Batch of 2 targets.
Target 1
Amino acid sequence: MKKDLGVLLAAAFLLSGCQSGMGSVSLDKGLLKSSARPQVRAKGISYSLYYGSNHTHTAAGGDDGKLSLEEAFSYARDKGKFDFFATTPHSHMITPDGYQTLRQTAQKFNQDGKFVSLVGQEWGSLSRGGHINIFEANQLCQVTSGDWNTFYKQWLPAHNEVSWVALNHPKLNDFAQSLINPQKDAVASKFSTIATIGSRSDYEGEDGNAPISEKAQTYDYFLNLGFKVGSLGETDNHRANWGTSSPVSTGVWSRQLSKSEIVKAIQARRTFSTQVKGLKIWFTLNSNEMGSEGSSPRAMNFTVAFSDPSKQTTNLYLYGDLDGPGGAQATTIAQRPVKDGQAEWNYSYNASKSGKMYFYLRAVSGDGVMAFSSPIWVDVK
Ligand SMILES: [Zn+2]
Ligand SMILES: [Zn+2]
């Protein structure tokens, strides 16, 4: 008999509650059963699941995609069925006035409860440190592309309003040349997301999207450098078919569908990347939810609720980096098969020592990764 995610989540969290003694991560069983959107609770707050796209291009303002911003937002909302959508024009292709016009246009499409529209800007140089998306800046970043010294030491500290920065289509050595010290610099905490799944079919431009194996490699690489980055799906769509040519998207657990809450949820990294429309992951470690930083005793209880409507996922892998940033990268801690696209998984693990660690989930089909959760970072005592 097929179970829905709500039932799985309910079972998972009841188990979690038993094991960790009224853990502060739980779920509202009733709401899950009656709601099309699954709902979870963590530390007294309820979150619902929303899907969106956070890296796209249009022709608006001189960017190198297609169609206008109005056409893009309408398409993404009505045909792509996204709950939230961000367009991220190349900063060097648009003007400061053009950027302000884009922000105003986006605001007209924002309808709390129905659709969240965002404008970011894609800054950087592929040959000098890589591309990033900067969100919620009140000005266009006019720092020369690739001049990380000015960007990182002057521009970013002067723009506290920036809500988050995404590492785009990452390659090994990207951002490493860019002076960012994720373990020491306060401003580095702005770099809070990384693209872990991309879509070649959506891309039409100069940088392309790395194959999934490379994305997995870069995820582990940047986490091990000490970046506390959550997982995003990235289409980098330049083809005016936002949400219809590729199922790649980002799942976000948010208090509600409003611009401020979606932004907060992404800042908190309650996110996962997915290759499948409607795929769902919720992942906790003791009382710590997906994306969070906390502490844990050596006896750890992991709880996973997973649903893949395409039923392609064959296995879940729990990845962990037991010596934290530096040293070895994350490796497989445990795995379990997925049957019929559904899984609930409670896994106990006893760390042999204390220290800083992080853990995340991969959903896998054959050689391909279907989804990556954001990590949970814990200080194990
Ligand atoms: Zn790019
Ligand atoms: Zn792009």
Target 2
Amino acid sequence: MFPNMVTGWERIEFRSMTIAFVVLCFSFLILLQRRKSKLPPGPKALPFLGNLHQLDSKNLVKSLKELSDKYGPVYTIYLGSRPNVVLYGYKAVKEALVEQAENFSGRGEFPAVHRFTQGNGIAFSNGEKWKNLRRFALVTLRNFGMGKRSIEERIQEEAQFMLEEFRNTKQKTFDPTFFLSRAVSNVICSIVFGHRFDYEDKRFLSLLELINDNFLVISSAWGRFYNIFPGIMNYLPGTHNRIFTNFEKIKTFVLENVRDHEKTFQPECPRDFIDCFLIKMQKENGNPMSSFNIETLVMTTHNLFFGGTETVSTTLRYGLLILMKYPDITEKAQQEIDKVIGRNRCPTVEDRSKMPYTDAVIHEIQRFTSIIPLSLPHSVIRDTQFRGHHLPKGTNVIPVLSSVHNDPEKFKQPQIFNPDNFLDENNRFKNNDAFMPFSTGKRICLGEGLARMELFLFFTTFLQNFNFKPTVHPDEIDLSPSISGVGNVPASYQLIAVPR
Ligand code: HEM
């Protein structure tokens, strides 16, 4: 009986505590609401779902455009219960990522990748760890020839291997996806692992399939759903689980390579990126705060391997489709290639400055396709004032790069593919500061120099040696992406490579 006896005083005390608790919760909610209300305006969000019902899962970019028509270039959407500040159009993206570069340099939440990286690796780390890894990777990649002649030769060699593969198709139709990704991936593999892989290597091919599949799944509705509701999706069956099994297999491959390197490396004579990282780890041995350990090595290697493969090869694949749709543009580029390079030697990076039309075509391919349309998520690293709004530290930010590429103030008729966007009245190459396929600011793509070299050398080598024929009439080629999420992915297609 005794424990159940409640005295009058206890009852009063309990009631006051309850009232105090309710008042406290209420004040907290009001505080939260106040802080929220200082975020940029945006559509009304539903509890739990946020604005999910207003976003077309097949075409997120289109939904973001419609919302910007209503709420302006800076607005807030809730993905689940998490607010995300959207930057739409050139001015908003530049004001944030360039003019307040440091404040907007954080990597935002990306649960589908976080479950795997745990915040290690360059692309998904933050703070000192990110700064140290990024600085180290930039210097090391440059030492191994990124942006230099040595890597140019590697790309030229790989382009020749690919030509051979094209010739072997004997003018039969084929899907170019893995022809392109094997060649592109081998360039970054040479820098990171110290060697290229044979095109027949089954393990290499299956890795490229895993990378390609992850790009597709992360960009699909499954990937988007996982990013919004990771807590629930972790327990549900579905396609999203492929992301993690794929990642695990890629990680095992990278880890095995690292272990092989550990057995054979000589500190005085580093062979590749992994060797340099191992040396750095040895130097920092004993520093518990070091950013250089086996986890960050595996994730950074993975970032370079993944980032260096799928982006460039998707741009090439999309680019070939565009070139087949516009044979007049292709022919004009081929005439320039014939005039400046001829048919008997490999294209070099030096040729680019004498080839404004081809250069403009490649820029236009990157603008038009915007293959990473929403960049990777950013966040603010401290409380930030932006256009009269208050963004608390850690707020996720989505810079819509495709909106910059489609900004009518920066490009005439942006919905039309037109290389003139990058030519002046004298047909000289003309840059445009709204060209941002690699993003801008402190997080700008680490592989930009390498990617630009690859795109120029691969495209010119293809066009110098082949005419590409579609299997349908050019007018019937649909250039809209079949998936538009993290990546803009073209519909799969077949082509015929006819030697010139
Ligand atoms: C056409 C090819 C490429 C495109 C369009 C592209 C695009 C991008 C974009 C949009 C970002 C996000 C930037 C941001 O957060 O604001 C990024 C980051 C990154 N990219 Fe690329 N990329 C390409 C090629 C490459 C290559 C070849 C490599 C490897 C050498 C690479 C490695 C990375 C890394 C490591 C990051 C993370 C940078 C950081 O968080 O500090 N990318 N890329």
